[in-house]
Amino acid sequence: MHSFTIKDLENLSGIKAHTIRIWEQRYSFLKPNRTGTNIRFYSNDELKKLLNVALLNKYGYKISHIDKMNEKEIKEKILSLNQSQAQQERIVNELIQNMVDLDIEKFEDILDNYILLRGIEKAIPQIIFPYLEKIGILWLTNHVNPAQEHLVTNIIRQKLIVGIDNISSSVSVDKMVLLFLPEGEYHELGLLFMHYLLKCRGVATIYLGCSIPLDDVEYIVKLKQPDYLYAHLTSVGHKFNFDKFIALLNKKFPTLPIVISGQLTHHYEKRIHPPIYLKRSFAEILEFVAAL
């Protein structure tokens, strides 16, 4: 069993911590434990309950009504939601729940069924990326067991690579983007997704992958002369320093536009000056790709 903070639950469910506390006081579906210093922590089951409750509440069910439902009734109501967005959110929640339970066979079945039904080109933006956005929060806070992370990462990585290999873009953009992760960063899925988006747009790409020294990036830049550098930061090693990383990028590539996205950009509050640009949301990433 793993424990989650109230902030984890807020990020994963979309329900504010203040509201979660109110629900705990008024209703019976959440019963957190507390540490010796009286800090709330939540089990796998608490997380799964809240994901289901939050989904039903978002699509019209009152909390007082949900609180009276048993587990079977909640599942039936969730399956009866007709809106396509609700169904996509339900599937993302199921992926999270199966990851938490380490039910990897069911996790992959859900992905495979959606890909079979909708195709990989729709599964990536509708299911895989929303899942990665949510679960990246747990990677960042170390509330996912490494075994869980490695298992689901390898499954999704395979799906993304298949999607990238199958791209046949009808457009072509006269731009080249070099994609890499800095030393100590091994969370590759966000960068693979960016690779997918760029190839769909018809952009030429150079994909270097995980934990690449900047000296190696510099060598490829001199050789290939890309139009942009792109890095995605999810959860780098303890020795990583964002300020030093920015300073090194400015020193090595003073005129080359550099785009950085990922969870770590959400918490970096210092002003960044061109040619370095932070993309803190999926919408900003899509705007960048569309503008190429």
Short description:
This protein has 292 residues and is an alpha/beta fold.
Can you characterise this structure?
This protein is an alpha/beta fold. The protein has three domains: 1-79, Multidrug-efflux Transporter Regulator, Chain: A, Domain 2; 82-166, Orthogonal Bundle (Methyltransferase, Methionine Synthase (B12-binding Domains), Chain A, domain 1); 169-291, Cobalamin-binding domain (Rossmann fold, 3-Layer(aba) Sandwich). The protein contains 13 helices and seven strands. It has helices at residues 6-13, 17-26, 44-58, 63-66, 71-80, 84-100, 104-118, 120-140, 146-165, 189-201, 214-224, 242-252, 282-291; strands at residues 33-34, 40-41, 173-182, 203-212, 228-232, 258-261, 276-279. Helix 3 (44-58) runs antiparallel to helix 6 and helix 10 (189-201) packs parallel to helix 13.
Going by helix content, strand content and strand pairing, the class is alpha/beta
CATH fold descriptor of the largest domain: Rossmann fold
Helix count from the secondary structure assignment: 13
Shape: globular
